Amino acid sequence: GTVLTLLMVDDSVGGLQVLRDGVWWDVPIVPHTLLVIIGDQTEIMSNGFFKSPVHRVVTNAKKERLSVALDYSVDHEREIEPSAQLIDEKRPALYMKVKVKDYIAGLYEHFSQGTMVIDTLQI
């Protein structure tokens, strides 16, 4: 539910995975990397031009891992919607307008049901 996440990943122990075509793929370890993950808010504001990847982190039973994440979000009282500059007759809005705090509240509800809140905003 962020604009983006900056992730300083562990240099030796993996665990980050992304979902593509129904398969979970390991993200390769690249030492000294700062990874940028596009968030749902960016997907909405870019009208789907930038996609927010479905991702997870799995544990390693044999080694500890340390990663540092910094999430950036807009003011929770603000409404987000596709940018007007990215909408026209050939490319209509793909998402409804939503207040950020309502979107974030919906994350927990939908996550517990195994669904994605961003999917509920598609027009």
TrEMBL record:
A GO term for molecular function: metal ion binding
Alphabetized UniProt keyword annotations: Iron, Metal-binding
Pfam families in alphabetical order: 2OG-FeII_Oxy
Start and end residues of each Fe2OG dioxygenase domain: 1-74
PROSITE patterns linked: FE2OG_OXY
Name recorded for this polypeptide: Fe2OG dioxygenase domain-containing protein
UniProt source species: Aegilops tauschii subsp. strangulata (Goatgrass)
